[in-house]
Amino acid sequence: MLKASFLSYSLRYALLLAGTAAFSQTEIYKSDIVFKNFETTSLSASLVIAADKILFNAADYKIYALDKASLQPVWEIYTGWKSNTPPYLHDAAFFYGNYEKGRTRVAQYDLNTGAKRKELPFESLQSEPYFANGKMYCTVLWDGGKLVAYDLQEDKTLWQKNIGHGAEVAPAYRPDRIIANAEDDNWFETDYSGNLLKGKTRKHTYIDTVEVFVKEYKFLTHDGKEIMPDFLRKNKIDPLEHQVKRTQSHTFILSEKQLLVLGTNKRKAGSLALETIVEEPYFDPDDAGAILTTNTESVWLYCQKQLIYYDFKNSKLLRRLDLTRWNPHQVRVDGRTIWLISKNDGQLYGLDFEPDQQTADRLRVQAERQWEINNPKPVDPKKIEAAKAAQEKLKNKKNRK
Predict the structure, then answer these.
(1) Which residues sit opposite 227 in a β-bridge?
(2) What is the pLDDT of residues 298-348, one digit of tens each?
(3) What is the C-alpha to C-alpha distance for residues 330 and 63, in angstroms, rounded to an integer?
(4) 239: closest CA among 216, 223, 212?
(5) Most Cβ neighbours (<10 Å): which of 80, 111, 222, 353?
(6) Judging by DSSP bridges, how do beta strands 348-352 and 251-254 pair with one another?
(7) At residue 63, what are phi and psi to the nearest 5 degrees?
(8) Radius of gyration over every alpha carbon of the chain, rounded to an integer in angstroms
(9) Selection from 192, 243, 245, 242 nearest residue 222 by Cα
(10) Where is the secretion signal located (predicted)?
(11) Chain segment 163-179, per-residue pLDDT in tens
């Protein structure tokens, strides 16, 4: 029985990889931060691609901004805060934690300079904020878990709802309403003025002592369809351990060993059994996968130290890059460049997985210069004697004058 399963696995793996080219990676950048008492087992760090910059929240409680084109540092700031959740971007600013004087607050920073613009009253942002008309809507920790509306121009909270652990789940922001989690799989609706909306359901709970109607499901798709636990199980997705990414046309769901892509009305647009990609039959539970970037036909995934580019429309593996050497903590893909934080040393790396001639020439010149620095040419005695003779001749000429 074990032999048959292994043969089935090997055959599926071989068929999927058939005709797929192998791609190598060229290291084009490595940070050189000196960490004190670095521990790979407790690494907490994050990165985000911010227009022409890379923001790297390192293990030393600093954020470093790197220019993508020149690969030169732009600025660095000490925040006293580090997290596996990257900064949230908005216009020419970003939001992240700031710890000083014994307390943690969410702060708004200038993207171009790193300067702190203002502090908000919240301890942390629990999900990615939604911005509209100068206002920020988000779930936060602030004397418990809350859904809040905050006026960025007036610097004041417009309204708040106590939702406890529901703050750990990202709300769905619709044109006319916010659909937020009220703990467990219970969801309620409010408008953007904070007015609770009635739903077509008999189930209810209480928020701030007010009775509110809730519906029970796991999450909503990009087109507002409810996803139930049985639907996930049927499609080999763990109902308790999964991540979701939505675009205008698709919903991407990733669990430990399965990718599911849904189109309109929950129609299956594609799927991928990750065991057919990763060669090892056993998965590392500590190496969590991630949905990186998506488009209408393909998706970039990170899974078990493998970077996967998959055409879900045609069920075709386009690329598979082995990142085991760098032992990634977090990975981002930006065009043809891979940015990652390594668990080995906590450093930020930039990899070019398909260098063009210009990049190849630049890397060659850099390597030659480094080699010359590390391997200086031996001194030529004849040149030394010639230099001494020239100096003596010049000295004699001056003496005659």
Answers:
(1) 219
(2) 999 999 999 999 999 999 999 999 999 999 999 999 988 999 999 999 999
(3) 15
(4) 216
(5) 111
(6) unpaired
(7) -110, 130
(8) 27
(9) 245
(10) 1-24
(11) 999 999 999 999 999 99
Mark 306-331 as b/e (b = at least 16 C-beta within 10 Å): bbbbbebeeeebebbbebeebebbbb
Rounded to 5 degrees, φ, ψ at 49 are: -90, 120
Q: What are phi and psi of 74, to 5 degrees?
A: -105, -50
Nearest-5° Cα angle at 283, 84 to 354: 70
CB of 245 within 8 A of CB of 219?
no
The 3-class secondary structure across 70-108, one letter per residue, is CCCEEEEEECCCCCCCCCEEECCEEEEEEEECCEEEEEE
Query: What distance in Å separates the CA atoms of residue 356 and residue 358, rounded to the nearest whole number?
Result: 6
pLDDT tier for residue 11 given thresholds of 50, 70 and 90: very low
CA angle 179, 140, 342 (to 5 degrees): 105
140/392 Cα distance (integer angstroms): 78
pLDDT band at 2 (very low <50, low <70, confident <90, very high): very low
HSE-CB of 211 using CA atoms within 13 angstroms: 6
Token digits of residue 287: 């190496």
What is the C-alpha to C-alpha distance for residues 363 and 25, in angstroms, rounded to an integer? 13
Within 142-185, strands assigned E span 145-151, 156-162, 172-173, 178-181
Q: How does DSSP classify residue 196?
A: B
Q: What angle do CA 259, 260, 263 make, to 5 degrees?
A: 150
Task: State the DSSP string of 100-147.
Answer: ETTEEEEEEEETTT--EEEE-S-SEE-S--EEETTEEEEEEESSSEEE
pLDDT for the residue 199: 76
Residue 384 DSSP SS3: helix
User: Would you state the structure tokens that stand for residue 399, as one six-digit string?
Assistant: 């003496």
Backbone angles phi, psi at 12, to 5 degrees: -60, -40
Q: How far is CA 68 from the centre of its chain?
A: 16
